[in-house]
C-alpha cells in the first residue's frame, strides 16, 4: 500500500461507525453475509439507504445478482460474528439463527436493528459498487448497545459528557 493510500485509510478510520452484516440469498438459495461499515441513510421519502461493496469481494457475484438484500445492525455481543464475516471466503450463515424477512431475505435474529431492501440502483464507485436500496421492511429490538468500529478496532459506545 502506498503512503498516500495508508494516509487515506488512516484518516477514514477516524470516522467512528457502527457495524452491519449485509445478507443475501445466493443464486443457489444459500444465505450469505458480509461485514460492512459503509452503511448510510440516504432518503426518508422514499426510504433509501446505501452501502458499498468491494469489487474484489468473493461475494461480489452473489450481491450483483440479487434483487433484495438485508442490512443487519450488530450489537456489542456480535463482535465474533463480525470478525468471521470479514474473513475472506467465510460468508456462510449456517450456524446463525436466521429468520426469513417478508421478502425472502435471510435476516440475523441477533441484529439490534434491521432493514430489508430491494436494490434501487447500483452505482460505479471506483473499486467499489455503491448499492442504493429501497427499505421495504425495518425494525429494531429496542435494546442492546451497538458494536462500534473506530481506527481499525472494535469499540463499545460510551456516554458523552
Ligand atoms: C468493520 C469492517 C467494515 C467493513 N466494511 C466493508 C464495506 O463497507 N464494504 C466491503 O466491501 N467490505 C467491507 N469490509 C471488508 C469485508 O468484510 C471483507 O473484506 C470481506 O468479507 C473479505 O472477504 P472478501 O474480500 O472475499 O469478500 C469491512 C470489514 C470490517 C472488519
What do you see in this structure?
A hairpin with a 5-residue loop joins strand 2 (20-25) and strand 3 (31-36). This protein has helices at 3-12, 60-65, 79-84; strands spanning 17-18, 20-25, 31-36, 40-43, 48-54, 68-73, 98-100, 106-108, 113-125, 128-140, 147-150, 153-156. It is globular, with a radius of gyration of 15 Å. Helix content is 14%, strand content 44%. The relative contact order is 0.23. The protein has 161 residues and is mainly beta. The termini are far apart. The protein has one domain (3-156): Pnp Oxidase, Chain A, CATH 2.30.110. Flavin mononucleotide binds at residues 19, 34-38, 51-54, 56-59, 86, 88, 149. Residues 19, 34-38, 51-54, 56-59, 86, 88, 149 line the site of flavin mononucleotide.
Task: Assign the CATH class.
Answer: Mainly Beta
The major pleated sheet works out as: 7 strands, antiparallel
* Low-confidence sequence ranges: none
**Residue-averaged pLDDT:** 96
- CATH fold-level topology: Pnp Oxidase, Chain A
Shape: globular
Amount of helix: 10-25%
Order of helices and strands: HEEEEEHEHEEEEEE
Tell me the span between the first and last alpha carbons.
38 Å
CATH architecture heading: Roll
Number of domains: 1
Q: State the total count of DSSP E strands.
A: 12
Structural class by sheet pairing and helices:
mainly beta
Q: Ligands bound here?
A: flavin mononucleotide
Helical element count? 3
CATH superfamily: Electron Transport, Fmn-binding Protein, Chain A
Amino acid at each position: 500500500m502506498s503512503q498516500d493510500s495508508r494516509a487515506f485509510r488512516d484518516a477514514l478510520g477516524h470516522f467512528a461507525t457502527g457495524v452491519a452484516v449485509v445478507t443475501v440469498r445466493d443464486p443457489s438459495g444459500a444465505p450469505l453475509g458480509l461485514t460492512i461499515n459503509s452503511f448510510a441513510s440516504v432518503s426518508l421519502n422514499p426510504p433509501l439507504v446505501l452501502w458499498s461493496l468491494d469489487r474484489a469481494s468473493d461475494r461480489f457475484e452473489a450481491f450483483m445478482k440479487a434483487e433484495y438484500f438485508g442490512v443487519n445492525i450488530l450489537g456489542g455481543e456480535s463482535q465474533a460474528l463480525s470478525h468471521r464475516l470479514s474473513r475472506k471466503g467465510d460468508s456462510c450463515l449456517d450456524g446463525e439463527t436466521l429468520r426469513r424477512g417478508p421478502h425472502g431475505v435471510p435476516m440475523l435474529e441477533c441484529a439490534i436493528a434491521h432493514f430489508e431492501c430491494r436494490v434501487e440502483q447500483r452505482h460505479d464507485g471506483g473499486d467499489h459498487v455503491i448499492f442504493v436500496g429501497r427499505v421495504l421492511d425495518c425494525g429494531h429490538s429496542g435494546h442492546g448497545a451497538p458494536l462500534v468500529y473506530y481506527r481499525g478496532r472494535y469499540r463499545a459506545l460510551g456516554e458523552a459528557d
